[in-house]
Specification:
This protein is of the alpha+beta class. Helices cover 41% and strands 16% of the residues. Among the domains are: 86-163 and 184-219 and 234-393, no CATH class; 398-467, EF-hand (Recoverin, domain 1). Pfam families: MINDY-3_4_CD.
């Protein structure tokens, strides 16, 4: 009877450990520091008990996998790549370079646990079924970037992923098209195809569109099918470069069709607990280890940052633009004497916004801020989420916005302040000539009087001047005004307290179910007038009942709104239920 009960407990634990359970909330401390004190809340206690059961199940499963160096070597001699047979092996030097590049010379067990405990799987909950579930905060940068590409295919290329053998290709035109918001109706096959195609596109982008490298881990042929599944479910023992070298294999593909077939055949490996790490390794190998190091400003720092194991900006940029550069501004910033910082060199498919820009810590360039498709990875101090719109028209610019973008690109190209928003007088005259700015002499002298030009002051002067004087003042007062909806997805489990979510029973009461969050936001962007004009209009239009634009919903605030305002300045947002979370 006792043995039967143990089998049932183990079976339950296995099911809970297989990522279909609601994922635990993001940790704010390393695993070793997380405890179960006497003041533990029922919600925290529930998550802790789930983790303990999962850990116990994983430990039992891992007994079937050899851990000693000699045993690992024997496994490597008789092993087979997941998804297909064989593959090339990294040399010990290459394995050491790869492991050190990712984790550094000293890495804690908590960080390794984070990065070997995150698969690439869709949420099982109907309301978030298009989203990838995140168990740990560390690999969120990998999942968020991949999530952005998955959304591109699900929302804007449904015909491609609906076919059995779609042709890989990116549409360059933005035809009037509003994607469907029936997220729960998307079949599993379509989501899997979108995932496979997204992975293939990213890997080829990292390989300069010439190649894609797909990595795989090995398992022993002596294990039966169930044991193989359990080993992959539990994760592989990767604690050093030596461990990585013994179990890692890779294949290089020069055609997209062959890479698609390989990734589709190995999708269970990417869904396993080592899936996020496996995809990151594939991207690094596709780019080339030496090339990745050349991309970086400081190649001595690990790509996974201590002490919490977060993905660096270099990882996110690699997956968004194919280059592991550490900065988010456009182009590169030269300081003279052969010293420069590297930014984003080209326009991208999906973009990036960050809370740090709203805090004036950095400046996101137009390449990331205005991607081809209205999908953005959103960065906070410690987490990455995704913002997206269903209608590409949200990025369409009117005459005023086009002119602002043109002048701002020229201005930013000469901004050597690290995103501070000012340039020299000499650089300003270059901007004037390049963008055909025509200002009266007295205005030119006024702008240049300080010896440097600040963007906000320059743009204010241009806005305030009538067209016949060289400015672009809008006499109608309607330019730049728009209302639209966006969606925000956070793959880390959050409690939906006010959103009508289900609750689970625990000792001492009930707590809301932890699950990923998808929030719909209504965004209202006011006209780009001077502050005085804006306040005057806001008062006079309060009684206007005819225009939806003049009647935005009551404004609400959350850190995500600050991120949105870096893309649409002075935007106001509203939503139903709990505030969207970017942590």
């Amino acid at each position: 009877m006792a043995n039967h009960q143990d089998d049932e407990d183990l079976e339950l634990a296995l099911k809970m450990s297989m990522q279909y359970n609601p994922p635990e909330a993001k940790r704010s401390k390393p695993i070793e520091e997380t405890g179960s004190g006497s003041g533990e809340s029922p919600e925290a206690k529930t998550r802790r008990l789930q983790r303990e059961i999962m850990a116990a199940a994983a430990e039992k499963r891992m007994l079937s996998f050899p851990k000693s160096p000699r045993a690992l070597a024997s496994v490597a001699d008789s092993c087979k790549g997941i998804g297909s047979g064989g593959g090339l092996e990294l040399s010990p030097q290459e394995s050491n370079q790869l492991f050190t590049m990712v984790f550094g010379n000293e890495v804690s067990k908590s960080i390794l646990a984070q990065w070997t405990n995150q698969g690439i799987r869709f949420s099982p909950h109907p309301e978030t079924t298009i989203g990838l579930v995140q168990h740990e905060g560390g690999p969120c940068g990998v999942l968020a970037a991949l999530q952005a590409f998955v959304l591109k295919y699900l929302l804007y290329f449904p015909d491609d992923i609906g076919k059995d053998s779609p042709s890989l290709g990116v549409k360059t035109s933005k035809n009037p098209y509003v994607a469907s918001d029936s997220f729960s109706s998307i079949p599993e096959e379509a989501k899997t195809r979108a995932l496979v195609r997204s992975m293939c596109e990213i890997l080829f982008m990292c390989g300069n569109n010439n190649r894609a490298v797909v990595a795989s881990f090995l398992y022993s042929e002596d294990l039966n099918t169930n044991q193989k599944d359990e080993v992959m479910a539990a994760g592989l023992p990767i604690e050093s470069a030596s461990d990585l070298q013994k179990i890692l294999r890779f294949e290089t593909f020069t055609t997209q069709s062959s890479a698609l077939s390989k990734i589709a055949g190995a999708i269970t490996a990417f869904q396993s607990r080592v899936g996020a790490l496996l995809f990151l390794i594939s991207a690094l190998l596709s780019r080339g280890l030496d090339t990745v190091q050349n991309d970086r400003d400081d190649p001595n720092l690990p790509l996974v940052t201590a002490p919490f194991g977060h993905a660096s900006q270099e990882i996110v940029n690699l997956l968004l633009c194919g280059e592991a550069v550490p900065n988010v501004f456009d182009g590169r910033m030269d300081f003279g004497g052969g010293m420069f910082l590297k930014g984003i060199s080209k326009n991208v498919e999906v973009g990036f916004l960050t809370l740090l820009e709203s805090l004036n810590f950095c400046k996101v360039g137009q390449n990331l801020k205005s991607p081809k498709w209205p999908i953005w990875v959103v960065g906070s101090e410690s987490h990455y989420t995704v913002l997206f719109a269903l209608d590409p028209a949200v990025q369409e610019e009117n005459e005023l916005e086009l002119r602002e973008s043109q002048i701002r690109r020229a201005f930013d190209a000469r901004d050597q302040s690290g995103g501070g928003g000012f340039i020299s007088v000499e650089a300003f005259h270059q901007v004037v000539q390049e963008t055909n700015i025509r200002l009266p002499n007295e205005k030119m002298n006024e702008i240049c009087a300080m010896g440097f030009i600040v963007w906000s002051e320059l743009w204010q002067v241009i806005l305030e001047l009538d067209r016949n004087l060289g400015g672009i003042k809008d006499s109608s007062g309607m330019m730049g005004k728009k209302v639209f909806d966006v969606y925000h997805f956070n793959g880390i489990a959050k409690s939906d307290i006010n959103g009508g979510g289900q609750a689970m029973a625990v000792e001492g009461g009930t707590v809301p179910v932890q699950r990923p969050r998808l929030t719909k936001l209504n965004v209202s962007v006011p006209p780009k007038w001077t502050p005085e004009e804006y306040m005057t209009c806001a008062t006079s239009s309060s009684s206007d009942k005819d225009s939806e634009v003049n009647q935005p919903k009551p404004a609400q605030h959350a850190p995500l709104v600050d991120c949105i305002r870096t893309r649409w300045s002075r935007a106001t947002c509203s939503w139903a239920g709990d505030p969207p979370s970017i942590v």
